[in-house]
């Protein structure tokens, strides 16, 4: 792990505390659960922070709610716009409805049908674009120019990072003696917020990230110690197919001990096992850190090790399960 730097320090723990107060009347304080059989199989004491039970079915509501809540009354009249292929899309639509603002969500044409339907259900307007990040950004910028709406990025934004960090605050408040905390990494908003929150609550805690092998730009960045943009993504974990954010990377570089990668076969197996053992629904992105528990350095750890995992979401299409 590297030493913190000035870029990583631009988002403070105070911003996360303020976000926790700001979203307190809107976001759920999700439960932390354990499973005896799972602990026996993994050889660890595992505590799952169930953001799959958050509003809109993912942790994304935390950051979206914080960002929308920080807009002035005048700004809210112009609405909000974002670009997202999944959970952030629904989160923005729901958060905007909470504060009386209209939401426009730019989504690739091939986005998950369940997640697209959720945006519409929460009152958002879907604008489709080509299936690449450049098209998403360009289309969102066009909406901003035409409507004056406030752009809220999906992960590379201080308001979003601060909101996501509230999940780790709650986790450590409930289980303060954790040795390790781990979360999946895609764009990096969740793990960046987790780094800041966890390190402030417990300075000696170890922080790990987990990533699909088919979208491993964070792992590549960690190996080279410089941000490596994602060139292509081929993974069942659709929520992690985004390139690591510019603002998130130095925070992750400073705070994460290591990034563990897992294959799609391992992700699907972990997802299925988790469903069967806990009776809780998680999506493939949530299963990424669950699968990582079977790999180094976790597979050789002492059985007394307490590890907290943030389950990022539970939005899956029941007609298109990965097994």
List the SSEs and their pairings.
Elements lengths: L12 H11 L8 E2 L2 H7 L2 E6 L9 H10 L3 H5 L2 E4 L3 H12 L4 E6 L4 H9 L3 E5 L3 H15 L2 E2 L6 H17 L5 E5 L4 H13 L4 E7 L4 H8 L23 H8 L2 E5 L1 H15 L5 H9 L13 E6 L12
Parallel strand pairs: 2-10, 3-4, 3-6, 4-5, 7-8, 7-10, 8-9
Antiparallel strand pairs: 1-2
Which keywords apply here?
alpha/beta; Rossmann fold; 2 domains; 6-stranded mixed beta sheet
Written overview of the protein:
It contains 13 helices and ten strands. Helix 6 links the parallel strand 4 and strand 5 (125-129). It has 323 residues and is α/β, with parallel strands linked by helices. Helices cover 43% and strands 15% of the residues. The chain starts with 12 loop residues before the first helix and ends in a 12-residue tail after the last strand. Helix 1 (13-23) crosses helix 3 and helix 12 packs across helix 13. It is globular, with a radius of gyration of 18 Å. The protein has a six-stranded mixed beta sheet with strand order 1-2-10-7-8-9, with helices on both faces. Strands 5-4-3-6 form a four-stranded parallel beta sheet, sandwiched between helices. It has two domains: 8-54 and 158-311, Rossmann fold (3-Layer(aba) Sandwich), CATH 3.40.50.1100; 60-151, Rossmann fold (3-Layer(aba) Sandwich), CATH 3.40.50.
Structure in a nutshell:
The chain is of the alpha/beta class. It has two domains: 8-54 and 158-311, Rossmann fold (3-Layer(aba) Sandwich), CATH 3.40.50.1100; 60-151, Rossmann fold. It has helices at residues 13-23, 36-42, 60-69, 73-77, 87-98, 113-121, 133-147, 158-174, 189-201, 217-224, 248-255, 264-278, 284-292; strands spanning 32-33, 45-50, 80-83, 103-108, 125-129, 150-151, 180-184, 206-212, 258-262, 306-311.
């Amino acid at each position: 792990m590297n030493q913190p730097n000035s870029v990583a320090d631009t988002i403070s723990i105070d911003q996360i505390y303020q976000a926790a107060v700001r979203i307190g009347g809107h976001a759920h304080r999700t439960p932390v659960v354990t499973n005896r059989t799972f602990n026996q199989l993994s050889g660890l004491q595992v505590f799952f922070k169930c953001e799959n039970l958050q509003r809109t079915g993912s942790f994304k509501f935390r950051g979206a709610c914080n960002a929308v809540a920080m807009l002035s009354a005048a700004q809210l009249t112009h609405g909000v716009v974002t670009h997202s292929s999944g959970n952030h899309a629904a989160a923005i639509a729901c958060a905007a409805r909470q504060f009386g603002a209209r939401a426009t969500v730019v989504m690739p044409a091939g986005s998950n049908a369940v997640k697209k339907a959720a945006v519409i259900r929460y009152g958002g307007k879907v604008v489709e674009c080509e299936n690449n990040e450049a098209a998403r950004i360009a289309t969102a910028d066009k909406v901003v120019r035409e409507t004056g709406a406030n752009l809220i990025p999906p992960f590379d934004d201080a308001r979003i990072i601060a909101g996501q960090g509230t999940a780790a605050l709650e986790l450590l408040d409930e289980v303060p003696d954790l040795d390790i905390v781990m979360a999946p990494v895609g764009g990096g908003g969740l793990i960046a917020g987790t780094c800041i929150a966890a390190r402030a609550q417990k300075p000696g805690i170890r922080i790990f990230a987990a990533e699909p092998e088919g979208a491993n730009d964070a792992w590549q960045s960690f190996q080279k110690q410089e941000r490596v943009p994602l060139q292509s993504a081929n993974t069942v974990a659709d929520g992690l197919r985004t390139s690591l954010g510019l603002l998130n990377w130095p925070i992750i570089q400073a705070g994460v001990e290591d990034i563990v990668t897992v294959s799609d076969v391992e992700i699907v197996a972990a997802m299925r096992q988790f469903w069967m053992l806990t009776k809780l629904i998680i999506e493939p992105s949530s299963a990424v850190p669950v699968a990582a528990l079977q790999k180094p350095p976790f597979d050789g750890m002492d059985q007394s090790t307490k590890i907290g995992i943030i389950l990022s979401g539970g939005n899956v299409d029941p007609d298109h399960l990965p097994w």
